[in-house]
Amino acid sequence: MAHGERWVRSSPPTAARDHPYLQNLAENLEPLRDLADAAHFICVLHGRHPGVVDHALDHARVSLERDWLEAAADAFATERAYLVRIVAAAGPLPSTPGHAESEAAAHAQRHALDMLAQSDRAGCAAGAALALAIDWATIREVLDAVATRLGLTIPVSTLPLAEETVSVVDALARESAMERAMLFGAQQVFAQHRGLWDLLEARTSARNRA
Length: 210
Prior knowledge:
The protein is an all-alpha fold. The chain is built from ten helices and no strands.
């Protein structure tokens, strides 16, 4: 098995993608308030510039890494604008018990992502950015579900294809001995995203009990 395929399969994105609440959001099965809540919190993590990919680009050390990150950064500029447009159309956050605590948790997640993407350990920032690109396909499904419910136009994603991302992982792992640091950065991003779905599910439960 190639480095890239092994890296993706041995990392835990599947655990995040298989999260029941995430699946319900992506399949447009939740009420609009829950979809809007998800968009707001995704925006906390990824709606600000510079983001994970932008920070990682500043720490790129080899040309292949830099080329992929430059393309991804350009694509994420469009994704970020789309995310902000959704949040603006969705309106205020739904009233939720314990909001201050969940907001603090989300900001802590954002800080953790920033630290990963600014790591000086060769490969860590790239791994974080590559993991975000891999996970973004599922996050995009959630955003598209919100946009559909709000009647917004859904732009075409210009992020590098998954096959291209896996090829970059493979090449970087083989040529620059960064696989372990890349894997660490990726695992931490996947973990933060799983934590986000847990947080959103808890917020929905809190609203339903109120």
